[in-house]
Predict the structure of HHIP like 2.
Amino acid sequence: CCETNRTRFCNLLHLHDEDYCFPNVLKNTALNRNLGLVVEGHKGCLQLCLTEVANGLRNPVLMVHANDHTHRMFVAEQVGVIWVYLPDGSRLEEPFLDIKSIVLATPWIGDERGLLGMAFHPKYKYNGKFYIYYSYMDKNRVEKIRISELKVLASDVNKADPRSERNLLELEEPAANHNGGQLLFGVDGYMYLFTGDGGKAGDPFGKFGNAQNKSTLLGKVLRIDVDGKSPDGKPYRIPPDNPFVSDPKARPEVYAYGVRNMWRCAVDRGDPVTKKGRGRIFCGDVGQNRFEEIDIVVKGGNYGWRAKEGFECYDTKLCHNSSLDDILPIFAYGHSVGKSVTGGYVYRGCESPNLNGLYIFGDFMNGRLMALQEDKTNKWKKQDICIGSTRACAFPGMIGSYSKFIISFAEDEAGELYFMSTSYPSAYAPHGSLYKFIDPARLVIKDVFLSYCLPGNF
């Protein structure tokens, strides 16, 4: 489920590694101990630890990998800079990309604008293409979001070519908030883009808001083919099976609608053995003033906003409309629990097999970490995650505390899970950190790993 080449694997193995996942590792009894359930604390929460991978970041909004077997991590700051971190945790001196001069970002606390999304082309290893999603102001001082394609420099795999930028899509933003920002590629090879409803409060645009209006691209999940062009000249193609391609009242890019402001979505890799769940797209959709929700995105789905917020009515007139036909979230929580969901990932890594299948996410406002577990009836049960039991995390390099404001979650090329947070949520404040989750029950003797890199053990 991780690195399958012996030489690359052994080169990547470092003394601070607590576990590893080379094929047949589960046949080793020393690495097989403490398999089962995650240890629960006295309050019933899941006991996990952290290791700090990086700090001094300016509102780190995302971390992605290129799926090119280099195991590099690309960390983007909201201000418009993308850094490269090597497998040993070191950061290259020069950024991968610096577009501060064109990204619209301010030092105001809580400003949602900036560099918000990044995704590598599924064939990046061969074509060098990647995509970014950012806020900017045009020459007429109109605020917009832009989705662009760029290429890596042919002469340096750790530097992007800013001159290669090709604009794919621009959308005018009627307000400064709810800018969306997620970019990802599905298992179908198409790009998915997640836009906000246009901002302000209550989606006040038009008769029933942007999110329920399929003729606008705001408040939507969009799906496009970046490897083709449309007959009308658009620099992308519309997938022929998009759900509304035959609806003259809908934009053909729309894949799902009824979205308020989905903040962080992720594709499930699927169970390492059975592949169950592979391809599901999980999103956290930030609520108005009562509920936060977690959704699984499906083709043509209506996720309810502004008719509903979570499981409840928001706009009574729209909510009771018989044509709403909305898809309910898999989980929602009230504002006594948290006030701004940050979507996460389904854990599918190898170092912490006890976490397999758990959807791990958090709340931006209060720093709460949570996990959802699906049962046999397809219902989802929530458990809190406890970080920092002194006894459980008393290992070299482990920490039991983190900065409060959870901005984003991430996974590395091996499927291990991380999150980014800050103590001061400003795009210009260098108070952000990147943390990796560790299951303390799975810490094992490091000499066992190293012996597996000796000749004859593969």
